[in-house]
């Protein structure tokens, strides 16, 4: 059995936790207009809010990988508001996909309403 997940942070290609996606099948990218990212420093947190389009990578994962992702993201299945993240299915161009949403305060954190994480700084010319 496989499940779709949409990732926006350290699980993306080339980033520190992408090795968790070794057995996953990359399906494509999308821009979600109902997702905002908060730069928490070493990783981002997402919230359901209107945006100009946050870039996500969509993968098909097996049940073992999905379980590992829940552990990595600190999901508490007994009480979704108590874990570091909880997950929710959102519509993507590849069909419904689980997205991990941040449970804690984002006060004072930089907001990303368009594009992706990490924030790419353009060189000054």
Characterise this structure.
- There is one protein chain.
- The protein has one helix and nine strands.
- It has 125 residues and is mainly beta.
- Strands 1, 2, 5 and 9 form a four-stranded mixed β-sheet that branches. Strands 4-3-8 form a three-stranded antiparallel β-sheet, with no helix packed on it. A two-stranded antiparallel ribbon has the order 6-7.
- The mean pLDDT is 94.
Annotation keywords:
three-stranded antiparallel beta sheet, four-stranded mixed beta sheet, 9 strands, 40% strand, mainly beta, 125 residues
The sequence of SSEs as H and E is EEEEEHEEEE
Count of alpha/pi helices: 1
Approximately how much beta-strand content do the residues carry?
A: 35-45%
Class by SSE composition: mainly beta
Low-confidence stretches: none
Number of strands: 9
Evaluate the radius of gyration.
14 Å
For the terminal residues, how far apart are their CA atoms?
50 Å
**Helical amount:** under 10%
């Amino acid at each position: 059995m496989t499940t779709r997940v949409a990732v926006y942070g350290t699980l993306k290609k080339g980033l520190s936790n992408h090795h968790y996606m070794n057995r996953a099948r990359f399906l494509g990218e999308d821009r979600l207009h109902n997702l905002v990212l908060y730069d928490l420093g070493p990783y981002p947190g997402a919230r359901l809010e209107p945006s100009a389009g946050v870039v996500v990578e969509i993968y098909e994962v097996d049940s073992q990988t999905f379980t590992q992702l829940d552990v990595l993201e600190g999901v508490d299945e007994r009480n979704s508001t108590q874990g570091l993240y909880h997950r929710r299915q959102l519509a993507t161009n590849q069909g419904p996909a689980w997205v991990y949403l941040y449970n804690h305060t984002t006060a004072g954190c930089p907001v990303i309403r368009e594009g992706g994480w990490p924030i790419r700084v353009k060189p000054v010319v």
